[in-house]
Amino acid sequence: MQHSLKQTSLSRVLTYALSYILALLWLFPIVWMTVSAFKPMGSPVSILSVAFAPPFTVENFSIISQKAPVYIWTYNSAYIAIAVTLIVLLITSMAAYSLSKLHFKGKKIMYIVITMGLMIPIEAIIIPLYKTMADLRLLNTYTGLIIPSLTAPLGVLIMKQFFDDLPNELIEAARIDGAGIFRIWYSICMPLSRNSLAAVGIFTFTNSWNNFLWPFLSITSEKMMTLPVGIPQFQGANLSEFTLPMTVSLVASIPAIVVFLIFQKQIIQGVAMTGIKG
Amino acid sequence: MGSLNKQHDLHAAQRKESLAAWLFMLPFLALYAAFLLFPIFRGLYTSFTNARLVGTVRIIGLENYAEMLADKDFWGSMGNTLYFVLISTPTIVVVGFVLAMLINAKLKGTVFLRTAYFSSYVLSMSVVTGLWIFIFQPYTGLINTIITKFGGQEIFWLSTRGIVWLAILMTTVWWTVGFDMVLFLAALQNIPTEMYEAAEIDGASKAQVLFKITIPMLRESTVLVVMLQMIASFKLFGQTYLMAGGGPGTHTRTIVHYIYESGFTNRRLGYASTMSIAFFLVVLGFSLLQRKLFANKEGR
Amino acid sequence: MTKRVLVLALALMLVVSATVFAAGTQESAKPGEKTKITFWSPFSGGDGDIMKSIVADFNAQSKTSEVEFLIFKSEEYYTKLMVSVSSNSAPDVAILHLSRLLEFTSDNLLEPLNKYASAVGMNWGDFSGVLQKAAQIDGNYYAVPLDTHLLLMHFNTKWLGELGMLDANGKPAMARGEKAFFDYFNAVKGKLGDNQMPLSGTSQFGLPQYVWYTLLTQYGGEIQNADGTKATLDTAENKKALSVMKQMVDSGIWPKGQKNGAEIFTGFRATATINGNWGIPIFEKVNGLEFISMPFPQFTNVNSVYADSHTMVMPTSRQSDAKKQAAMEFMAWMADNTLDWAQAGHIPSKTKIVDSAEFKALPYRSEYAKSAEYAHFYPRSLSLTGMIEVVQRELATMIAGDQDVNTTAANMQAGYQRLLDQKR
């Protein structure tokens, strides 16, 4: 018995060591990026004893805005991600409600058609999508950046799963009370599905925030660029040193990191929800 | 009379509901049809033409398809993509599982650990690749500075065959594993504690608990994680394009990269569309195959 | 709950208004307002900052036009430019390397400039003969040249002086010829410590390609036959050029795997660097770096160096004539004000500016301006973009040590020939 206790505590120590070492490894690049952003321009930050020792400065943050419209890119990214998220929440919850709780002809086919969409990577339709957007004169517009993110079927399917689990009695009761179809959707189903909405919203937001290929192809105006497209441009134009690109990266990451730290619990619950429901 | 009336009402109600249902579907469906379904058919059409970015379009039948089947660059980039799917999927799934186990071990500071493992997931791809270029860059990059300081040789992480894949894999694991980890974590926390208690009473060893309870209970999550991860890996483009430019040579040129290059750099939209169709079919095939395999195992 | 609906409605409105806004800003200068001209470029070195300030000067003095200036990553620039023309989102003015002119005009991507140019009274005879000739195709002018730029070698004079590798004039003591080159740098290498290299230079993308074309032409080769139908890359000349490059890498003179050669030079880790004249403004800014910019070494008796010219072109568009005329005015102004552009190390396109005392007073230029006399441009080709892509990739593979000289030459030949054949 004593022997086994010893063994347990040894394995416990090892588990502690492993998990904390991994955590430090995982955090290290982010910490390095943060520290480098505060080093005077041109510092050889690859030498860690240089990177982590003074002097520090905040100059870089104003230098980068003279070199590239980094703050406009941040605004664009945020604007697009927020717009995409709100619209996706609205249209997917409506479609999901219809698929889950309403009866109509062709429902089954609709469901199959939408499920099939899961298997279409946007990368495979990027060329016709480009032509379509060009025909509609939507390249280089916010609308053109927002629309392709609205067609992802995953949101509909997650919301449908959730609505399926809502007891029909609840809806029947509301109907007897005289509530219409729309009212049932927005005053019963929507409030109850707050967590699913959060899950879908968070995914949509991060996907949009990180979206690379489509904006990379379709934006040709510096003022319309999002961060994922603008940052490599900036790095391409400022190759000869580390600190400025690090500063741009940090600025680009702060909103996402802050959102993550504030909504950490919801985000992780949200991710987990797709796991259970998906 | 009364019942007829009632039936009439019922029909009217059904019609109304049906109309409402379609109205609710409409916004999503319209976008879905216009910007997902329509491009697929348009791409299919383009794949039978000689379309370039500019100029007149002529239907050339299956010429593009014949060219594709004989194009060793196509097979090469398809091979690179499959290679990455094969190396990345197990790695990320296993690392994600291990991290989830560590968090679930009820250590002190669980929230810190979880935050640490997950936070890289919220970073944008460009930030991630930019950061890791600085880490892997020879002569002045972080790792090589450390290696050479201790008397080691320069390692050309991003321009040596094989090693470049290791670098891309490390970057991708670091960036995305948090997502898989959380999926596993949720599933782990759903395993009823009674099962573990029962196992303890039966005197099961740790390995037995792991292999007889934990892993079987995670089957469904694993299916999901593997599936999502595979599709994500098929789409690889940003990391290889931004970090290695598809190189050395064409060693890390993925299929999405080659489609981009053919369609936009060389302006051959028709040919690029043909490869897009092939890419789509491969992803679709893999997803269906995987569904089938796992469905069988579960005895459904 | 109504609050949520409100928020959603608001969001929708926001998007709609953004669309309208974006559509509304798409052009149309009202009377009294300045004409907006968009101007794209691939400048990524110090020349980007310099061009920015020249454009700012233009904007400050122009009463009628305002130029919006954009820099793209050079690897993606031409793809972006072609795509934008084909989707009607092209800039009004764009930088184009003269070597790519035919490729753009053959797809009707550029406006002929004759009409607009004569309206602003442009005298094409002001440009140096080579550029003037190269800027026209079938009697139409398509491009306004800004400069000639070429590949150079830059030496850290303080360091090399300490190593005793300079001659009495303070210049690198290197004679002409292949052997002299290797002797010189092997001697330098012998005097260096760990983590130091004789010669830096980025191991991928454009730079190896510039070195390659310089050597190829010095050894008497060319990329294609006279009428541009057959690639000539699987030749003894190309193999010679490639093997010299490979020897530079393998001997440790120009170590492989460099992500950014300029950074290694400015970080005092290389005694010399291969870079174009466009590297000069970066090097000038580095504290404590004493350097000299020299013509790229000549390996044979044939004088040659890779060169190209930045020109300004007008992509095809449905813009009004008035707008195109405004764009032409901007281009003409730029061509007259290339002295500032010479700060970036480039050699101005107009002979009278090259001959001016102000240009001659700039440092380093006198050292290399004469090598412009034997500057070698790529021949005209319908598939230059694709050729460059193939060559860059094959060179990067060879430099990384993954491919021998013969395979590299054979792959270049096959890749370029395939592109030439597709065009027909």
Low-confidence stretches of chain C: 1-29
N-to-C span of chain A: 44 Å
Q: Give me the Rg of chain C, rounded.
A: 24 Å
Strand content of the residues of chain A, in percent?
A: under 5%
SS element count, helices of chain A = 14
Q: Main beta sheet of chain C: strand number and arrangement?
A: 7 strands, mixed
Subcellular location (chain B): Cell membrane
Domain ABC transmembrane type-1 (chain B): 78-290
Pfam families (chain B): BPD_transp_1
InterPro entries (chain B): ABC_transporter_permease (IPR051393), MetI-like (IPR000515), MetI-like_sf (IPR035906)
Describe the structure.
The complex is a heterotrimer of chains A (278), B (300) and C (424). Chain A is mostly helical. Chain A contains 14 helices and no strands. The longest helix of chain A is centred in the N-terminal third of the chain and has 36 residues, at 2-37. Chain B has helices at residues 2-46, 63-70, 72-104, 110-119, 125-136, 142-149, 163-189, 193-201, 206-217, 219-234, 238-244, 255-265, 269-297. Helix content of chain B is 76%, strand content 0%. In chain B, α3 (72-104) packs across α7 (163-189) and α4 (110-119) packs across α7 (163-189). Chain B is mostly helical. Chain B has two domains: 1-46; 63-297, MetI-like (MetI-like fold), CATH 1.10.3720.10. The radius of gyration of chain B is 26 Å and the shape is flat. Chain B contains 13 helices and no strands. The two termini of chain B are 49 Å apart. Chain C has 424 residues and is α/β, with parallel strands linked by helices. Chain C is 46% helix and 15% strand. Chain C has 19 helices and 14 strands. Chain C has helices at residues 2-24, 46-61, 74-86, 101-106, 114-119, 129-134, 157-162, 178-190, 206-218, 236-250, 261-266, 280-284, 321-336, 338-341, 351-354, 357-361, 365-369, 384-399, 405-422, and strands spanning 35-41, 65-71, 93-97, 136-137, 140-141, 143-145, 147-156, 197-200, 270-276, 291-295, 305-308, 310-313, 347-348, 375-376. In chain C, strands 7, 8, 9, 10, 11, 13 and 14 form a seven-stranded mixed sheet that branches. In chain C, α10 (236-250) crosses α19. Chain C is globular. Residues 1-29 of chain C have low confidence and may be disordered. At the A-B interface, α1, α4, α5, α6 and α10 of A face α1, α3, α4, α5 and α6 of B. Chain B: Residues 78-290 form the ABC transmembrane type-1 domain. Chain B: Keywords: Cell membrane, Membrane, Transmembrane, Transmembrane helix, Transport. Chain B: The chain crosses the membrane at residues 21-41, 82-103, 115-135, 163-188, 209-232, 269-289.
